[in-house]
Every structure is written in structure tokens, then in C-alpha cells.
């Protein structure tokens, strides 16, 4: 199983960026997908999650309204659209895949596979 995240880079505050994560080696639609991030010197935190069909999404409270998770099962890809970016959004963003039940997306123990991360830097 491979999860390949891409789309990170340097963006000015207030700007937007879209991250992508391409999955291989899995029956993609069978997996919930998620994004986490880890800022320098901080713990990895959950950002967003989406069900296999894409019908249900959930977000960290602090990011609701700015970030949007989506997926294209035909392309085995999950996306994270990030808008109105702030310097505190600077982090390495990781995509993840899991097959757990229920609506608790936050625990890292729920997720089985992890991508390598892509760095997002937001300048002020």
C-alpha cells in the first residue's frame, strides 16, 4: 500500500492550496481517508476525514469553513482544499487510510496506512 501526498509548497497568508494524495495497492473506495498535520515542535493533529463514498466528511473544529476534504474514487485520490491560509497552518500534512467504524476520525490508532507527508509553508 502506498499513499503519495503532493501539492505542498509556499503560499502567502490568505492564499489557497490544494493537496492531493494518490493511493495504490488498496481497494480505494473501501477505505476512509483522512488528513493530519504536524507543525514544527508540535504533536501531529487530525485535520479532516471522509468516508469511502465521500458522503460524509468531518473536520477539526478549528478548521471548519476553511478546509475541504474530497475524494475521487475513479482516480484513487483524496484532496484537501485549504483556503484563507494562516501562518499557523504551516506544517507537514499527512494523508492516511483506514477501515474503522463510527464517526470518531481523530484517534491516530484508527488509521492503518500513512503517506510520507507534504510540507505547507504559509508566509505572513
* Multimeric organization: single chain
Between the first and last Cα atoms, what is the distance in angstroms? 37 Å
The total count of helices amounts to 0
Instruction: Find the structural class using helix and strand composition.
Output: mainly beta
Broad shape: globular
Major sheet details: 7 strands, mixed
Return the average pLDDT rounded to an integer: 96
Give the total of beta strands. Answer: 11
Order of helices and strands: EEEEEEEEEEE
Provide the gyration radius in Å. Answer: 13 Å
Q: What proportion strand?
A: over 45%
Helix percentage range: under 10%
Uncertain spans: none
What is the element layout, followed by pairings?
Layout: E1 2-6, E2 9-12, E3 17-24, E4 32-38, E5 45-50, E6 57-59, E7 67-72, E8 77-82, E9 91-98, E10 113-114, E11 118-123
Parallel strand pairs: 2-11
Antiparallel strand pairs: 1-3, 3-8, 4-5, 4-9, 5-6, 7-8, 9-10, 9-11
Short description:
With 124 residues, the chain is mainly beta.
Report on this model:
By secondary structure, this protein is mainly beta. Helix content is 0%, strand content 49%. It contains no helices and 11 strands. The protein has strands at residues 2-6, 9-12, 17-24, 32-38, 45-50, 57-59, 67-72, 77-82, 91-98, 113-114, 118-123. Strands 2, 4, 5, 6, 9, 10 and 11 form a 7-stranded mixed β-sheet that branches. Strands 1-3-8-7 form a 4-stranded antiparallel β-sheet, with no helix packed on it. A hairpin with a 6-residue loop joins β5 and β6. It is globular, with a radius of gyration of 13 Å. It starts with a strand and ends with a strand. 31% of the residues are buried. The mean pLDDT is 96.
Amino acid at each position: 500500500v502506498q499513499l503519495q501526498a503532493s501539492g505542498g509548497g509556499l503560499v502567502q497568508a490568505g492564499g489557497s492550496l490544494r493537496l492531493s494524495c494518490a493511493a495504490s495497492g488498496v481497494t480505494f473506495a473501501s477505505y476512509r481517508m483522512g488528513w493530519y498535520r504536524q507543525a514544527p515542535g508540535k504533536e501531529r493533529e487530525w485535520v479532516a476525514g471522509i468516508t469511502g463514498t465521500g458522503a460524509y466528511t468531518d473536520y477539526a473544529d478549528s478548521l471548519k469553513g476553511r478546509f475541504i476534504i474530497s475524494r475521487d474514487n475513479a482516480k484513487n485520490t483524496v484532496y484537501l482544499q485549504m483556503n484563507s491560509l494562516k501562518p499557523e497552518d504551516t506544517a507537514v500534512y499527512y494523508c492516511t487510510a483506514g477501515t474503522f467504524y463510527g464517526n470518531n476520525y481523530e484517534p491516530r490508532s484508527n488509521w492503518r496506512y500513512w503517506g510520507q507527508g507534504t510540507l505547507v509553508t504559509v508566509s505572513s
